């Protein structure tokens, strides 16, 4: 399909040869990086799938020490989950703003997404802190608590990496007065990743928190 | 548009320019150079793994051997397995993938050249990290259990056994819990294995993403999916297997590492954990891993056999789909490794059945290879001999494998030498014979010279005889009850004679490999020049000069059919026999000339320092986790991520030395056309 995009300014490129048509790519019509991100995320589903199965195995067993299902604070986690879901909305708005050329809107929504993500992460830090200090459930209390902290901790790490990527994009947008087309694709990639992290959280919240609570 | 000056950072971050010498190898993003480095590293580890095997065989040559201590023996069979699987067969397959995949689909490089370099550097640092346990490991004998008379014993391991070799990881390549847990394996050897495998997994994950995108997106014009060589198909299947199995072992390795380093209780039965969970997770990765090891060799054989039979591959589509079916079914058979671990009868029946099913696509492949040879004008060169050896040995290994689907029979064979014989027939007689076939076949592609045929045939026959002398008697030893992973056997067990034969066989294999190395060193300098098309080949990687020019294709190829190169050279007579076209020799001459003389300079992906630097951070994090209680460990936990993240930032802002558009496509191939189509 790229044949239709015969490069007009090929004369600007040193060493290029007008007849050098070898790069017909991408054969599928999907951008390499986007396809790569999709492929990566398909692997990530199994990563979290393994952690979730692991929690399902241990989460409902009885142990001598306090287990996660006894101490969930469902209203609190519902609110932080809602915040995370809203960050998917702002992510879409950022993407939409860029596609309509609204650079200020892009920056605003990027920052909003990062902030909402940080609020969620802060909630998780608070939850962990309370579980450890007040409810006395640590990483090493029993296999259920180990599974809980590993699952939600690795999810939190993913959110954290996503926030760093959002902030990097925001920084680039500020410094260059807006996102170029090149970074437009980056925004799309970060968006894919961010939505993935959200979807995984919906699964975790449903299976681990809502269905798991006693 | 043509300069990088528009971005201020570009003055600090120059792309390296060396095209020769040390730095060119450190900074390269060329898939061919990366492939060659993978190959040399893999064969280096092959020698290490081989020496470990020979030490094992010296210990077992006679009853009550005392060549190795028990601790050393445990360490040797563990590192032999880990090395051969993760540091030889996987990387040597990656070497073939890297070198050949872009050539076979008519591309100038992979989709993400810098990521390709990154996966190579992560791999080599992971391998070195694993073995660095010799220098940085901390040997602590197990605390031991009182035997009731005040004597403390810890298995059969005497703390005095802990020598240099004994300090390597023990516990078997599958690192079963709780044996490999904190209680029974204190010290750091197992940690090095766990984190080393984690790092190697990251490398494989990155390259699998890269290869999948490359196959889907970088094909030349006319290279439809069902026109791709079978080797490319098998690359794709292996990449998907890696993609879906690695995250599972990553989770398992994290859990085991946390158990050992941070006191979680996943596999600790005393704390309510479930050691069998480790087996499930390990084999859920481990069985697809078996196909990750064998499918590349199947791809190689599917190229070598048709070329040397001078016939098209029999049942191309069937072979391709059988490869996919093997991969799919491969995710549903893992518990046949665990029949003796107490899983329910229903599970045993189900996994027994699924294990039988997997013989079907494998059988399809075998019959297709035989159909390919049937009625062909066979050329018995070394590559062909190794391919035929592959088919024959793999059939034996496959048949002994199917016997494991019969659950009661499997109970008898579990953890005996019968199993050892089975998987060596599959992985050595299968994978490694296939790999050698590929080495002989594509050596001219890499060096422009032929490997010596006389030495090659000597290599084949010595290795073939040595292989069967080594592993065939293991079937009988196993059925006689010789238990795997046991340091010594008693003289009255009657196992001595066959064990001696096995040891002699192992040294015969070593002789064969030595002949191969002589051949390699000799042929690399003085081998006969190969010309463009030494094998009268079928696939398009032979339409370009040997050794491959840096830019691969001077003129981008256009593909019209399966086995495109063959159809350029040959036509058929009325009875379907191939007839060489008149202009075929001129065609080859023209291709050689055109391939060496591109009409204009060709853009290639620029080299980069950052993959190397970024990969360097990972082993530092690994040391940091292992020694996280000490101040040095804590420092490394800061420094390692800083190096990796710093390199990532540098990666992001280094200039591309080409157009902005070029970068837009993940520094793929040249930027001329692709640039315009960003939505």
Look up the CATH topology of the largest domain in chain A: Four Helix Bundle (Hemerythrin (Met), subunit A)
Decide which structural class fits the backbone of chain B.
mainly alpha
Outline the low-pLDDT stretches of chain B.
1-11, 658-679
Series of H and E elements of chain B: HHHHHEEHHHHHHHHHHHHEEHHHH
Taking the alpha carbons of the first and last residues of chain A, their distance comes to: 56 Å
Strand content of chain A: under 5%
How far apart are the first and last residues' alpha carbons of chain B, in Å?
19 Å
Most extensive contact? A-B, 59 and 69 residues
CATH class of the largest domain in chain A: Mainly Alpha
Number of helices of chain A: 6
Per CATH, the superfamily of the largest domain in chain A is Cytochrome c oxidase, subunit III, four-helix bundle
Helix fraction of chain A by DSSP (H/I, runs of at least 4)? over 70%
Bulk shape of chain A: elongated
Give helix % range of chain B.
55-70%
Describe this structure in words.
The complex is a heterodimer of chains A (214) and B (679). Residues 1-24 of chain A have low confidence and may be disordered. In chain A, helix 1 (32-59) runs parallel beside helix 6 (181-210) and helix 4 runs antiparallel to helix 5 (143-175). Chain A folds into two domains: 1-30, no CATH class; 33-213, Cytochrome c oxidase, subunit III, four-helix bundle (Four Helix Bundle (Hemerythrin (Met), subunit A), Up-down Bundle), CATH 1.20.120.80. By secondary structure, chain A is mostly helical. Chain A is 71% helix and 0% strand. In chain B, strands 1-2 form a two-stranded antiparallel sheet. A two-stranded antiparallel ribbon of chain B has the order 3-4. In chain B, a hairpin with a 5-residue loop joins strand 3 (570-572) and strand 4 (578-580). Chain B starts with 21 loop residues before the first helix and ends in a 15-residue tail after the last helix. At the A-B interface, helix 1, helix 5 and helix 6 of A face helix 6, helix 7 and helix 21 of B.
